[in-house]
Amino acid sequence: MEMDSHILLQLNMAMPYGKYRGRRLIELPEPYLVWMARQGFPAGKLGQALALAHEIKVNGLEQMLLPLLNGRAP
What we know:
Elements (H helix, E strand, L loop, with lengths): L6 H4 L19 H10 L4 H15 L3 H8 L5
Helix pairs in contact: 2-3
């Protein structure tokens, strides 16, 4: 998967539909992202950002990125 340099910023994007509508992608619960990975992520930038959020969560990297996504340097 080729990464767009702005993909990390898309993790701040609000989920546009479903149970977690309005929640930032990085804040989606890991079990939901795992379920979505099994179902197949949607096409396009949303799917790419959801796949990245999934990888970040399952590898325990969320705490490292939150300061960057919240606009605070660690």
